[in-house]
Specification:
The chain is mainly alpha-helical. It contains six helices and three strands. It has a domain at 63-152: de novo design (two linked rop proteins) (Up-down Bundle).
Length: 166
Amino acid sequence: MIEEYGRGIPNGRKVKAISPGGSSAPLLTAQELDITLDFDSLAEAGSMLGTAGVTVMDDRACMVRVAQNLAHFYRDESCGQCVQCREGTWWLEKMLTMIEQGKGKMEYIDTLLDACSQMRGTTICALADGCAMPVESIVKKFRHEFEEHVRLGKCPFENEHMGDWT
């Protein structure tokens, strides 16, 4: 799909991650891309087709920044009725911002995962799940980037935060 319909990744870059089903879908890594884009195959891979809004991130994308951007979107969209969503999205965005700015601590990484697990399946609508699922997948699959941010005290991707999104 990336090569045939998306005309590939520009400038010789490599695929780093893909969101196969819109912003709420758990991400897949480049190593997980040899997959059929259908409901069952994506579910088996731990993601979902969702809205089928495919987002491809290249190797310059800062995955901490990607997670932060998602958390910000969902925090803005929360109606505030459910505590897990209202507070969970706020805390995710806050911790991700601290990590992205180089002010995070190693324990924030596991706290992010814990917060995601507390948000999933606990609210009236699926907005909290929509935030928790991709953030959790990013933290689990790209944990080394979160750790590097903390170790360096800054984003190692400098100004390339989002890379090329196609």
